[in-house]
Inverse folding.
């Protein structure tokens, strides 16, 4: 039995939150907290929250309500709220749910060890600053043994684009890029711990600007890290797809043929209302150039339907764009008004119309995704194996195109990269045979 205190972290939202949760666990690890898989029996529960869509805060309050029983059994239990809801709601969280001991925003979690001392002394702790210091410089090196061969690495945070629907510029703040030498050091630390694939993260990752380094330069430097086999990056904005980044997709052998490039809408009128600063045509030409550099690249996207002012013809334009691009993967959402954003002031499309459009769009996107998966059958892919599958002796991993692939491979280890022939396409994965 260790004397460590038990920390349960529940993560909501995007991959950047997944990364932040890891770093928070590491920061608290240095103060004697050990991460556990369930809230029961924990000494500290930390919710790392997302504010991107509707009812985010309400969901957190109802989740907190569920911990009443655990708190009754263990009055010493400490409860914290981190992430973007913490940033947006601040003190209000403790007012509405007095059980909460700690509230910390996404830019101050390096101060968690200090905050925990306060909390352990029975005080409340709140920090939603946008501090001058760089939180990453105040976090411990990546100390935990890694179980997963694929890791996230945040290189850029925040957003200066101010899309009319989006809370990120308010919750995560202005665009900040981490210095390239720090990123390379962290990447080497991860590789020493067995990581084979690094996914570079940023709300606007391709706007990365680290002391004059572009994202493409960073990717080329990572390409030289021995032991690192695969590089990915997400999420990008069409207006920051620079020539060097497009070229890297054709020339950099560790950069995987997958690009998440949200367009949100195919209507120029809606794009303008969203303040996206580009047209549908611009996006389509961009995809053509990317495909010219890397013909087999899988394109992924995000869409919003029912944005204020979206008419049938605008939605038709979105459907046309989707047909033209042919997505291998995509996420689509019904517009939800976020308090404080410009679009929240405008008149809405009715829920019925938005629902119908969402259904239609998702049907098309699913059809495209399935067709692309079907086309993989018979092809050979390289799979980075990550974990055991549901069946005995089965292992699951990811192809270069980020398809989940399962094979029978009792001798495979997490971290192995092996050539596989795809033999079948299932709903959300491919079945394969080791070659
Ligand atoms: N309503 C619906 N979807 C949204 N997204 C961001 N803000 C909103 C909103 N207010 C979607 C966008 C973005 C993805 C992360 O979430 O498609 O690319
Ligand atoms: Fe959610 Fe966006 Fe914050 Fe990520 S950055 S947690 S998606 S609001």
């Amino acid at each position: 039995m260790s004397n460590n205190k038990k920390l349960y972290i529940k993560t909501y939202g995007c991959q950047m939150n997944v990364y932040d949760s890891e770093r928070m666990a590491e920061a608290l690890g240095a103060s004697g907290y050990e991460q556990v898989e369930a809230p029961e029996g924990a000494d500290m529960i930390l919710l790392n929250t997302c504010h991107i869509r509707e009812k985010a805060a309400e969901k957190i309050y109802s989740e907190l309500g569920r911990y009443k029983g655990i708190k009754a059994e263990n009055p010493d239990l400490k409860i914290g709220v981190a992430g973007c809801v913490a940033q947006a709601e601040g003190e209000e969280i403790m007012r509405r749910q007095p059980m909460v001991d700690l509230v910390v925003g996404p830019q101050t979690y390096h101060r968690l060890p200090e905050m925990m001392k306060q909390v352990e002394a029975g005080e409340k702790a709140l920090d939603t600053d946008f501090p001058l210091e760089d939180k990453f410089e105040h976090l411990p090196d990546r100390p935990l043994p890694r179980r997963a061969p694929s890791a996230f690495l945040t290189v850029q945070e925040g957003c200066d684009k101010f899309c009319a629907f989006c809370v990120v510029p308010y919750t995560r703040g202005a665009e900040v890029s981490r210095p390239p030498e720090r990123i390379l050091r962290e990447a080497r630390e991860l590789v020493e711990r067995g990581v084979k694939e690094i996914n570079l993260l940023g709300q606007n990752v391709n706007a990365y600007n680290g002391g004059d380094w572009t994202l493409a330069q960073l990717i080329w430097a990572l390409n030289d890290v021995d032991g690192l086999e695969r590089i990915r990056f997400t999420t990008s904005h069409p207006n920051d797809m620079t020539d060097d980044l497009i070229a890297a997709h054709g020339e950099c052998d560790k950069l995987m043929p997958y690009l998440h490039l949200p367009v949100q809408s195919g209507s120029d009128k809606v794009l303008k209302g969203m303040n996206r600063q580009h047209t549908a045509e611009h996006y389509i030409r961009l995809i053509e150039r990317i495909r010219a550099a890397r013909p087999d690249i899988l394109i992924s996207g995000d869409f919003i339907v029912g944005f204020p002012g979206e008419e049938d013809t605008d939605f038709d334009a979105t459907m046309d764009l989707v047909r033209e691009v042919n997505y291998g993967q995509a996420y689509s959402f019904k517009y939800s008004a976020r308090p404080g954003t410009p679009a929240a002031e405008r008149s809405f499309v009715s829920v019925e119309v938005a629902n119908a459009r969402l259904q239609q769009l998702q049907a098309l996107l699913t059809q495209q995704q399935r067709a692309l998966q079907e086309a993989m059958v018979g092809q050979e892919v390289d799979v980075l194996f990550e974990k055991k599958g549901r069946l005995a002796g089965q292992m699951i991993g990811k192809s270069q195109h980020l398809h989940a692939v399962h094979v029978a491979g009792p001798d495979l280890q997490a971290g192995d990269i092996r050539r596989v022939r795809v033999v079948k396409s299932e709903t959300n994965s491919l079945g394969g045979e080791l070659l």
